[in-house]
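Recap from last week: sequence in, structure out.
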Amino acid sequence: MKSILITGCSSGIGLDAARTLRARGWRVFAACRKAEDCTRLRAEGFDSPRLDYEDPASIERALAEVLDATGGTLDALYNNGAYGIPGLVEDLPTDALRTILEANLVGYHDLTRRVIPVMRAQGGGRIVNCSSVLGYVSAPWRGAYVATKYALEGLTDALRMEMHGEPIHVVLIEPGLIDTRFGENGRLQFEKWIDWRASAQADRYTSGLMRKWRGPNNAARLEAPASAVTAKLIHALEARRPRPRYMVTRAAHLVRLLIRILPTRAIDWITRRIA
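Predicted structure tokens:
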């Protein structure tokens, strides 16, 4: 039975991946940031270590728990847990940027570095990082999240090249809009960090970002289910020679094409109207 550690399994992409891979015969360690979510998943029969990317001690404990259960091996790691902080870059507190970089990038790096020696000793493995369409195109209101995903793309590409010649495959998954609680979680981060009333552009919040939150979700028609991401993950994990990156949703493929053929100002024009 192959083993995989998946982070961010409380809902959405991580939870769908955990359930699907278990059904395919994998031993899944479905990690969550909150203890109560781990308890819920254990009730489903999962091994569920608590892992918070912002807490290095929890990363160390979680991996130790996994390796103790498997006898010191781990076939795959899926770095998935992440969140956004919607808001204008000028209104983003520096401490907020430090925090989200810790959660969406530095924590991934910490866990990955700990896993690589395990995979090397056992003769191979797969490391899959969940990025985003916002890892290769930016958008207003999403500066903090974009910064983490752009950085993750570059870090993962470097690691993939550095692992050349070793049986450790490094893969990026780049989802477009997926039907998850990402937006809901982002609004909680917005309330925590963004003092929009004190912003020099406060009117843009009420007429733009917050108005869209109150109105119908027109972007919902572009969303794909979490299972669409899991389908790409399965190929990344089980193919003899996985691709370096997997885009998910037609919109993600379209965006990649457009940034290749259109000038920057045209891309800016499009994203300002969509965001």
